[in-house]
Amino acid sequence: MTESLPLTTVPIELVVNGRRRAISVAAHHTLLEVLRDGLGLTGTKECCLVGECGACTVLVNGMSVDSCLMLAVEADGASITTVEGLADGDGLSPLQQAFLDHGAAQCGFCIPGQLMAATELLVRTPHPSRADVEEGLAGNLCRCGGYEQIIEAVLAAAEGQERSAGRAAPTSDRADPAAQPDAEVAPQ
Fold it and tell me: What is the three-state SS of 100-117?
């Protein structure tokens, strides 16, 4: 008969989507497991579990992170934003609305990770070029092949930020070769 060892838990404190949370977690559990199973935030998707697909992307202190690769204990004291935290009051955030308006959500499985990566990109680069968007979302896979719509949605959200801030949108980068769809990144 084998004797089972007691499960070691560690108390951690997080600020998740603006709300302070205290939870005891198993030392080996990932941030993904704690968000989904411990806190009931199932918008963050579990897929590859090796950091290849980006479906589990969340923001940790403003930086996009594959939550399947980060132990929850490493996030102790951090501010975490999940897709559930993007909503603007009772409505969608401008980025979420742009995804909807541009048909970027096909099956929807990758969309939470795409939205989180795009959120970080737009904070870091408020006036992204097409190449900036392609690079910023490169770690997020879409099995439906909706890359073109996703890129268009991010660019439209950035343009909408310009208008709402009272600034003129930057001139179109259509003459820029990087503004043309890249068949290897966004197959047509």
Answer: HHCCCCCCCCCHHHHHHH
45 lies in some domain: yes
Total-model pTM: 0.83
Report the number of distinct structural domains present in the chain: 2
Tens digits of per-residue pLDDT, 96-109? 999 999 999 889 89
Instruction: Let me know: does 7 contact 26? Beta carbons within 8 Å.
Output: yes
- Kindly state whether residue 2 falls inside one of the protein's structural domains: no
Query: Is there a contact between 21 and 36 (Cβ–Cβ < 8 Å)?
Result: no
Which structural domain range is residue 73 located in? 9-83
CATH label of the domain that carries residue 160: 1.10.150.120
Instruction: Report the distance separating Cα 127 and Cα 170, nearest Å.
Output: 7
Quote the CA–CA distance of 150 and 103 in Å, as a whole number.
8
CATH number of the domain within which 64 lies? 3.10.20.30
